[in-house]
Amino acid sequence: MASAKLHKRILFLGPTGVDKAKVAARLSSELSTGFSHEVRFVDFENEFLKRHMAVKSWMSFLAQDIRQQASAWRAAWREFVPSLDDRITIVGLHATFVSGILGLRSAIDIPGICNDLKPSLIVTLIDDVYTMWSRTEARAEGNDHKGRPSFEQLLVARRAEQVLGDLILAHANDGRVRHVLCATGNSLQALVNLVVFDAQLTYLSFPISAPRELAEKGDRSFIALINKAHQLAARQMRHDRSRAFASPLSIDELPILNALAGLQKGESAQFDCARDRWRLDELWGSPDEPIICIDSGNRTFPMEQIDGAVGLIKADLGARDRRLVLQSSSLAIVCPKPPGEERITRGVREEIDTAVAIGMVCYFWQDPAWDPGDYVGKIFPPAGSMGIGQTQALVQRKNSLEELIRAKP
């Protein structure tokens, strides 16, 4: 299937602990089998930078003066550039390096990336911080000289990676270049449609705490409804390749804070993704639907790691959801009013306000059984005798969940 909007030069950014190679492998397989596209993935640090470091380890490299790091990075980049060809090329690299001992470093050459690679799509890949930490700890095997960044350092690096992606976008001097924040728990089809068809993004907006609270009381109906919305979105992305949906549940970090309850200093927290995280296989309807499905099984984390990152985890939640809204073209809002409550949840309301402020269309569907008095309809009414205002024009009701998911910006 041909596409005039195909992205052929793609930059994958992502902090340590995010498996960019696995993401690229899954994307490449999908593009090959589904669209007959040949894809080249370049692991820049391992394929090129290592040869130019002039030291024996990454720790020694990061301990160097920034001018030495930058010189090695540019030399590696000069070696890489002549290898570019007409294939779809995904270049994976760290915009930042983070180490438990040395902290945060960045040696990339932004003008070189813009002028030589000329990426038309920049994707900053992110993952749950506890998954990132587990990967980096397993790789280090207890050796401090192999990095071992803390939860807090990984979160700082994740923020910095996004900022440097924005800087690359700003220096690209081309209004057609896109920078997309993408969690590895999001649908693979969203990433496929972005690459092949430059798809428009729709942000799935819905309450998250309320479904969990109901489930704790034995009622999983709200969780089942949110899962159904995601599964409809997954099918819609296969039916209409111009669509891509982004879900806030692709990152789900707040539940790990619950693991701190009752712990004393020096104790370890237990966390099981299959039990404590919103399950990605149930969310999207299949373990093959997410870009990378979270491994189940109990994990152990030193409580100090989590406790030291509580503020950043909470702050990142709102900032990340705002970012996901701002990079989208529309909102699909599922049941902003939880059953048994007369309110639109704060998170959903903030997402609507953010979208309306920039003129973004918001479609909503409210289960009528959960809103017999049409509370949501009164909050977002149709035009009245005084005409139609901005919010009335932009926040539009849909008659079914299926219609909501089909609605295009």
Structure description:
The protein is an alpha/beta fold and 409 residues long. Helices cover 44% and strands 16% of the residues. The protein contains 19 helices and 14 strands. The strands form four sheets. It has a five-stranded parallel sheet, sandwiched between helices. A five-stranded parallel sheet has the order 9-8-12-13-14, sandwiched between helices. The longest helix has 21 residues, at 151-171. It is globular and about 70 Å long. The mean pLDDT is 93.
Short description:
The protein is 44% helix and 16% strand. With 409 residues, it is of the alpha/beta class. Helix 1 packs across helix 8 (188-197), helix 9 (209-216) crosses helix 10 (221-239) and helix 15 (310-326) crosses helix 16.
Lateral strand order in the biggest sheet: 2-3-1-6-7
Uncertain residue segments: none
Query: How large is the share of residues in beta strands?
Result: 15-25%
Helix content: 40-55%
Q: Kindly provide the radius of gyration, computed on alpha-carbon positions and rounded to a whole number of angstroms.
A: 22 Å
Taken from the alpha-carbon principal axes, the silhouette is globular
Distance between the termini: 24 Å
The pLDDT mean sits at 93
The total count of strands amounts to 14
Structural class: alpha/beta
Oligomer: single chain
What composes the largest sheet?
5 strands, parallel
Q: What is the count of helical runs?
A: 19
